[in-house]
Amino acid sequence: MSKTPEQVLEAKLFKKICRKAGTTMRDHRMVQEGDHVLVGLSGGKDSLILLKVLEERRRALPFSFHITAAHVEARNVGYHIDKEGLETFCRELNIPLVFRSIEPDLLQDPKKKACFVCSWHRRKALFDLTRELDCNRLALGHHRRDAVETLLMNMIYHGSISSLPHSLSMFEGRVQLIRPLLDLEEGLLEEFADLTHLRKIEKTCPHEDRSKRDNIRSLLLEMERLHGRAAYNIFQSAGKIFTEYLPGHRD
Fold first, then answer.
1. Segment 45-97, tens digit of pLDDT
2. What is the pairing mode between strands 137-139 and 36-40?
3. Mean per-residue pLDDT for 199-217?
4. Backbone angles phi, psi at 139, to 5 degrees
5. Is there a contact between 178 and 139 (Cβ–Cβ < 8 Å)?
6. Which of 6, 28, 81, 177 could form a disulfide with 166 if both were Cys (CB 3.0 to 4.6 A apart)?
7. SS3 of 137, please?
8. What DSSP character marks residue 41?
9. For residue 223, how many C-alpha atoms fall within 13 Å in the half-sphere facing its CB?
10. Which stretch of DSSP H or E encloses residue 167?
């Protein structure tokens, strides 16, 4: 049976995504023989695509490694996720899925926004799971634009130059945090998600506050109006820092 034009395009896009992510994984030595990778599965398009990519890489690479997906659900905050959809998605990929529930105290520190508190606890729960499940890798679905936005946010709001690294050793080397999609442009992931209807498992939360990041996105769009490759060049600049030409440098 011949494929429809949509199926042909879907396969082409997925091959392109896997090829780019595969190069990133190779260049940063993200996965090696015998690794156990825990994938933080939020339910959004990026983490779902990441899981598909890692499953494809597992079949393509000349060595074996294990994959487990995990979703951390925040209770008592009005948070909703399509659990059945996540379970079906993972079952079709033959990847085990672990659910963990947390109850973050959003009022413990009134100075901190609910999203910050919840995100911190969800990330902590993922790290706890890496220990419980004996995982030495934690994979997150951040892409290039996430890194650029984070870089701009830290510069503007915190006065520091930092972003999202491809790979980061944590807990004295017990866990390596990896981001296989970090060299991918969001537009490519958006196009693939639209074709495969991945958005239907997206989580919702009444406390979600994206005001700062939305402002940064608007700023980035304005930069791209000035120069079409602005976002890409900002991303590339993170690896080309000439400290001797920056304020504060001391000989």
1. 999 999 999 999 999 999 999 999 999 987 776 667 888 999 999 999 999 99
2. parallel
3. 71
4. -105, 130
5. yes
6. 28
7. strand
8. -
9. 15
10. strand 167-170
Would you call 220 helix, strand, or coil by DSSP? helix
What mean pLDDT do residues 91-111 have?
82
Tokens of 136: 């030495």
Q: 131-140, 168-177, 198-207: which range is least confident on average?
A: 198-207
What is the model's pLDDT at position 208? 59
Radius of gyration of the chain (CA): 19
Distance CA 26, CA 23 (A): 5
- For the sheet with 97-102, list strands across it: 97-102, 66-74, 36-40, 137-139, 175-178, 167-170
Q: Which residues contact 242 (CB under 8 A, 6 or more apart)?
A: none
For residues 89 and 201, the answer to whether their CB atoms sit within 8 Å is yes
What is the DSSP track for 169-208? Answer: EETTTTEEEE-TTTTS-HHHHHHHHHHHTGGGG--B-TT-
What are the beta bridge partners of residue 167? 178
